[in-house]
């Protein structure tokens, strides 16, 4: 190999390592709280601009008052832990959801449809798709609207049980 090829190889290797160091906090979920708050603020602004719900299939029912449960509440996480894969990190799983009901709805939908939770979470939270649309895209052979409604009903039941 010539000196030019070795030099090109070394530069590419260093660049790849630099990109890895730069991206790894985001892949692992270790970014700072200021970054998370900024991202959450921009996501809520985008969601408000789009004027559509991120989880349910546009229902005219008002939100229940029982959704005031924190995403980090140990009772909620204990209730939803069996729905996720064994050994799942609940704080990472609950991250970026707007409320406990949305988190529980996606967890129930993932279990019911056998779609990986993190894939479904990405479609709903990051891509701002409705749960029914996300299910339809990932599993076109199932009744997405029915699964979304069933998951939402199960989530509301879980939240109501925790609120009492």
Considering the chains and any ligands shown, give keywords for the structure.
164 residues; mainly alpha; 8 helices; 66% helix; 0% strand
Please tell me about this protein's structure.
Helices cover 66% and strands 0% of the residues. The chain has helices spanning 3-28, 33-50, 74-80, 90-94, 100-113, 117-126, 131-138, 144-163. It has 164 residues and is mainly α. It has a domain at 51-163.
List the helices and strands and how they pair.
Layout: H1 3-28, H2 33-50, H3 74-80, H4 90-94, H5 100-113, H6 117-126, H7 131-138, H8 144-163
In short:
This protein is mainly α and 164 residues long. The protein is built from eight helices and no strands. The radius of gyration is 20 Å and the shape is elongated.
DSSP strand tally: 0
Q: β content, as a range?
A: under 5%
Largest sheet: none
Helix content: 55-70%
Number of H- or I-type helical stretches:
8
Q: Specify the overall morphology.
A: elongated
């Amino acid at each position: 190999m010539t000196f030019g090829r070795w030099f090109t190889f070394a530069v590419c290797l260093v660049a790849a390592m630099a990109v890895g160091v730069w991206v790894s906090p985001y892949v692992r979920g270790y970014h700072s709280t200021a970054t998370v708050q900024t991202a959450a603020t921009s996501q809520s602004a985008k969601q408000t601009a789009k004027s559509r719900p991120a989880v349910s299939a546009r229902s005219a029912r008002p939100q229940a008052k029982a959704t005031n449960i924190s995403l980090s509440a140990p009772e909620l996480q204990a209730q939803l832990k069996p729905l996720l894969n064994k050994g799942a990190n609940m704080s990472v799983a609950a991250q970026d959801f707007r409320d406990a009901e949305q988190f529980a709805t996606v967890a129930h939908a993932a279990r019911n449809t056998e779609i990986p939770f993190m894939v479904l979470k990405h479609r709903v939270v990051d891509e701002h798709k409705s749960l029914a649309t996300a299910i339809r895209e990932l599993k076109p052979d199932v009744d997405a609207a029915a699964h979304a409604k069933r998951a939402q009903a199960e989530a509301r039941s879980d939240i109501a049980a925790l609120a009492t």
